[in-house]
Amino acid sequence: MNQLQNDRFLKAALREPVDRTPVWIMRQAGRYLPEYRKTRERAGSFMRLCKTPELACEVTLQPLQRYALDAAIIFSDILTIPDAMGLGLEFVEGEGPRFLHPLSHEKDILRLAVPDLSGLSYVYDAIRLVQHELAGKVPLIGFCGSPWTLAAYMVEGQSRTGFPRLLKMLEEAPILLHSLLDILAQAVCAHLNAQIQAGVQAVMIFDTWGGMLETGNYEEFSLYYVKQVTAELLRHYNNRKVPVILFTKGGSRWLEQIARSGCDVIGVDWEISLNEARLRVGNGVALQGNLNPACLREPPEVIREEAARVLASYGRGSGHVFNLGHGITPDVPPDHVKVLVDAVHEFSRAYHVPGDSQ
Ligand code: 1CP
């Protein structure tokens, strides 16, 4: 593995001193970039793009060619695991993901097994290619959905407001749901560890739908399984610590519990300020976030002001990875992302003064 030229992101994730606050953007490779849309068209479909390592590598690197980002994230999708479990994933233009064989009956769940990782080898091949091309420029992040978030799509068959079939299963067949979540926790852990072995230097767990639960259910159906995953992850690899980021959209109520889940970094959405989040979690974990993605549609002066506001809210010292509070939306003008990334680097120096222990 190449020596890293820029390890600001890994250092901040582990709360080690840095010279500037690192920044990357959730969904940084995606539809707001014209070059992404071109490559996707060339691939013919979203799934073909994910499953062709050369193309996945190309789109992973596209945002790094435009912006001074401090990390890359492998281009893939959280729903590749259910696809490898035989549910048959397709993306309908304008509608989002859909499974050809959703989990409609109890027997569909009882039949499931942890997938053979050879069905996901295209992800590991893409990681190796990206690492070759990056040549140590910045670290590469691998990722997965949380067991709960994957179960949401698998039971529902697609994205649907409120996920009614999933919540019905939670009420009427909790034991069956637990058996699904148990298999998914094993699958998620195996897939993240295989990504680490293929070369990613950090991993992120997306619990996009954890926030729809009430507290007791969140702990029982989402956080419990995330803890199973973090307990089994390769936390050291190639003589380096591998930081784990956990992002629960709508999860600011549970920051204290999330801080004890075994993760190193908590992804924070824009429901609360970083100042409040930092006070609540103390020094045990780093924070990632939390600019409202809608801000990137505003004029450059507003973007700079908001970047300054988020940095000031976290305050002095390491332990902050700048990001949005959720994914970038397709309507963002690409130039606005440059304004944001450059502003974070420019304004954040003042928060990292050597010898200033905070
Ligand atoms: O048409 C297209 O080109 C598809 C758009 C797209 C993209 C660019 C999808 C479909 N997935 C992706 C890539 C992707 N997905 C990445 C790539 C790396 C990067 O960040 O640059 C990542 C990390 C994801 C993760 C993902 N997929 C999540 C968790 C993050 C989040 O935003 O909450 C979720 C929920 C998905 C499912 C999914 N895949 C795609 C869509 C449109 C969705 C969301 C469906 C919904 O609205 O429920």
From TrEMBL:
Pathway(s) of this molecule: Porphyrin-containing compound metabolism; protoporphyrin-IX biosynthesis; coproporphyrinogen-III from 5-aminolevulinate: step 4/4
Reactions mediated catalytically: uroporphyrinogen III + 4 H(+) = coproporphyrinogen III + 4 CO2
Feature type site, description Transition state stabilizer: 77
Domain Uroporphyrinogen decarboxylase (URO-D) per the UniProt entry, residue ranges: 22-31, 141-157
A Pfam family the protein falls into: URO-D
Keywords, sorted A to Z: Cytoplasm, Decarboxylase, Lyase, Porphyrin biosynthesis
Entry function: Catalyzes the decarboxylation of four acetate groups of uroporphyrinogen-III to yield coproporphyrinogen-III.
Family designation: Belongs to the uroporphyrinogen decarboxylase family.
Protein name, entry field: Uroporphyrinogen decarboxylase
Source organism per UniProt: Aquicella siphonis
GN (gene name): hemE
